Amino acid sequence: MALIVQKFGGSSVKDAEHVRNVARIVTDTYNKGNQVVVVVSAQGDTTDDLIEKANEINPKASKREMDMLLSTGEQISISLLAMAIEALGYPVISLTGWQAGFVCHTNYGNARIRHIDADRLNAELDKNKIIIVAGFQGVNRLDDITTLGRGGSDTSAVALAATLHADCCQIYTDVDGVYTADPRYVKGAIKLNEITYDEMLELASLGANVLHNRSVEMAKKYHVNMEVLSSLEDKPGTKVKEVATMEKMLIKGVAKDDNVARISVMGVPDEPGIAYNLFSLLASKKIDVDIILQSIGRDGTKDITFTVPESCMLNAMTVIQENKEVLRISDVTFNTDVAKVSIVGAGMQSNPGVAAKMFGALSEANINIKMISTSEIKISVLIDKDKAKQACNVIHEAFFPVEA
Fold it and tell me: pTM of the entire structure?
């Protein structure tokens, strides 16, 4: 008997027909002799609708009360799915995050999971019940509801799989696996049979929206076998694992991220400790910095340019402006008309010329590179935002040429 954790996103349970379809997938898995624990997200646009309702009442509502409100979306989903499974004649129980034992840190809106008390889960599994758990939520030491932030349901599913020592964690989405690029705008995108944790983590962090990076990070840490599948088609998906033995590909994917802003800090004193002062200040405000470029010093000063998520840009600019005299800078500017395009693949470690092929494809398309960042398994470039989709296509064509 295997223990399978299955996660279904909001689009997979968006209406009655989709809920019944999920119920069939879950019960088919159960009928094969498996124990099944299911994690579901809020239906469709429910979370966005709840945020809109909150804004109608109080646009500056506390994060605690927002968590209280937003957690109700997943509770609707779990009860409806449990009802659908009941209607098919199977033993089932729905549990909120706290009933399932999720204990989180006291950080409303973006809580981290401290641990899962699995007593209730194991008791229900011993009764041969299918368990439906509300994703995205838990309870903190104050017994307050907390939510896990973006991608929280993926993280809930992987955490359950790790705690229960599940044989597999299946992530069901509206796509049938992980592709070499987003098939919605890249011609010839290829579905991967498997991908390593590290490659998937990079793709998730660089804009690929199939899995959230926190869930992949947790899966790697606790050796959870993951598979990305379609909730609409019965076909094999993409396995995420420690080592991928798939055909030796130079790269595994091309991704773009439009949520990027470039900030340039000019006239910075060319002396030790200045970069530390700048970036420690941003870190204290929990502002993530990605690509960093420092100019060659001139006249005793230098310029430092870096990227942050566009959603953090105003906060970053405010922090820098407020500390302009302390940092001793002459000016600071920003640009949000940029995007980050990246390639990821463990194969590039032992194959010279990967960067040249990427840059050559961009050059032939007359796409200018503004900044470059590299690691052992990724290369990222900053380009004009309106060129991002074209860049993904020409880069993908360079590494995965479409046969005539």
Answer: 0.84
